[in-house]
Design a protein that fits this description.
By secondary structure, this protein is mainly alpha-helical. 51% of the residues lie in helices and 1% in strands. The chain is built from 16 helices and two strands. The longest helix is centred in the C-terminal third of the chain and has 32 residues. The protein is globular and about 55 Å long.
Length: 410
């Protein structure tokens, strides 16, 4: 259990130590032998991605009956017959392989698309019907996970579940203090800390794996939440625009957080192209993108999307500082750390904006959204915690958290 000021749930997966406890160790003596990673070209602040790195991703390999069916159809031009009868997913849409990958690919059509896919597929009715079935299953799974977490059922929610009560609405939907409810979700979070592991004992290879996992969301950072802008009005809309303007670098390409994370990947000798590691990531990793995509693409879930964003902003500062400390300990240059250090500064302000000016102001406008805001935060906590625990368990067992052989440096 941690206090609301000491959690790093969304970007971390569990509770984190305070900044004081995460002070990086003193650098080794320059006379001591050490292996210091070199800084690849384009891994310094100010670098931007090349046109090739900004190109559309390519479709991944299938992982079951549904993803095989969809990926085969998507490589063809859409026709009057549409998709044709689609099989069901082989497994759980939240933490399986076939279901999460299938939904990720369908959502991908609403972002950059895929190099092999005709853009006309984006709103093709028969494809949307398949997506709808997957979304209904995903939403039901998220509600079950969030309810189990709220009840303190660790067996159903995993070690990273959140116990507690809604604290924001009664049966009549009257809103209470949603900012306090969000802080309680954070305070009751458990689970192990991925950022603490990397800051204290993590290896360079482990940090590379972490970056590959996070690349799914960080290379499109802010994009899912931008869907909420036209769905909000007044003060909450202004607050969201303030946050998003920072995320997009206030219109300066080099300062876009997506770009800063790509520079970090370059510094780690990783491929910064979108989708470069789709075939290496385990199915549950896709939940980190599928969840905000689900919330963002449905106006009725705008409260949950605000809860997702608020949870991220309110739990970011300490884990981001820890990740920066990890890279410093591992000998990486300032360009590799800049993404994390920027978030330490920005999110110190964003956490207040997100809780008070965005979430609480939205609920003041529409009290019925209070439960959705807290649901979005709680579901995010459970999903991110589950993914972090899977990574840590793999490392504890001396194996990679990725599928297949470890990737070679780019």
């Amino acid at each position: 259990m941690t206090s609301s000021g000491g959690s790093g749930i969304a970007r971390d997966g569990g509770s984190t130590a305070t900044a004081a406890r995460l002070t990086p160790p003193s650098p080794p003596s320059p006379l001591a032998p050490r292996s210091r990673p070199s800084s690849p070209s384009g891994a310094e602040y100010g670098a931007v991605l090349t046109p090739a790195e900004l190109a559309q991703p390519r479709l991944p390999e299938p992982r079951g009956a549904l993803s095989e069916f969809l990926l085969d159809r998507l490589r063809r031009a859409p026709g009057a017959a549409g998709l044709g009868p689609a099989p069901g997913a082989d497994d759980d849409v939240l933490y399986g392989e076939d279901g999460p990958l299938s939904l990720y690919c369908l959502y991908g059509l609403h972002y950059r698309g895929f190099a092999e896919v005709d853009d006309d597929w984006e709103w093709e009715p028969s494809l949307l019907a398949v997506r709808r079935r997957l979304e209904m299953d995903l939403l039901a799974r998220l509600r079950a996970e969030a309810d189990a977490a709220a009840a303190g059922d660790d067996g159903a929610a995993g070690d990273d579940g959140v116990a507690g009560h809604e604290g924001v609405a009664g049966d009549d939907g009257a809103a209470g203090d949603v900012a306090a409810a969000l802080r309680e979700v954070i305070a009751r979070a458990g689970g192990r800390s991925l950022s603490r592991r990397l800051a204290t004992t993590g290896t360079l290879e482990e940090f590379r794996e972490y970056a590959m996992h996070r690349s799914l969301l960080q290379l499109i950072e802010a994009d899912p939440h931008t869907w909420a802008i036209p769905r909000l009005t007044g003060a909450p809309k202004a607050a969201l625009v303030e946050i998003q303007a920072d995320e997009y670098g206030h219109g300066v390409e080099r300062d876009m957080h997506q770009n800063l994370f790509a520079v970090t990947m370059r510094a780690l000798d990783l491929d910064a192209r979108p989708g470069a590691y789709l075939n290496r990531l385990p199915g549950p990793a896709f939940a980190t993108v599928n969840v905000p995509s689900l919330f963002g693409l449905h106006r009725r879930l705008r409260g949950a999307l605000v809860g997702h964003l608020a949870l991220f902003e309110m739990t970011s500062v300490e884990p981001m500082g820890a990740y920066a400390a990890a890279l410093r300990r591992l000998g990486l240059a300032a360009g590799a750390r800049h993404f994390f250090e920027v978030h330490v500064v920005a999110d110190a302000h964003h956490q207040t904006v997100a809780a008070r000016d965005l979430a609480a102001a939205l609920v003041a406008q529409d009290p019925a959204l209070a439960v959705d805001v807290v649901f979005g935060a709680r579901a995010t906590t459970v999903v991110e915690g589950r993914c972090a625990e899977a990574i840590l368990t793999a490392w504890d067992e001396g194996r990679s958290s990725l599928r297949g052989a470890p990737p070679a440096p780019r």
